[in-house]
Amino acid sequence: MNKCLDLQKVDIYSFDQIKGLDLLKSLETLSLGGNRINKIKNLDSLKNLKYLDLSENQIVEIEGIDHLIRLENLNLNNNNITEIKALDKLQNLNELKLNKNKIIKISGLDYLKNIDYLDLSLNKIKKMENLENLKKLSYLNLYGNQISEIEGLDHLYNLKTVVLGRNKISHKVLTYLKGRYIIKEFDFDYLEIFY
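The structure corresponding to this sequence follows.
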């Protein structure tokens, strides 16, 4: 019985609720992607969790994870989330994936000082904002949103890659970018450029 409590990784598929994980206190990796989960709950005992995959579910709200203070990687891709929130206590988080959701505004990231990788692609974001505190950010994916201006990157000195394809960036903005940012790669594939 004791060996069951030392599980390091669990993959669970085909259910609609998170439950029955109370005894897995040493669990570090939990993959719950591709289920029918609509609410994040019953993860209170997983204090050692470092990786949590809740992608491809039916989650509407980020909740029930504020006590997962050792979490380093959170995947919430392909859900129905409309707002980024309840992440303030996740100080060790360095990778956050929220693509294919319904997010309209970048917010709720102020306390994520260690975030290195942020994927907000395929949402409904109109403005690049509230990124200034993400000093360690090196990868930012905003592909497939509704962004028309590139802004808010001035103090992100570690930023190496910005993906902005399938947005509505004007030709004037692209001209302005030349020499402005020290970023190794701006990915503009499939960009809608307006003159």
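Confidence is low (pLDDT under 50) at residues 1-8.
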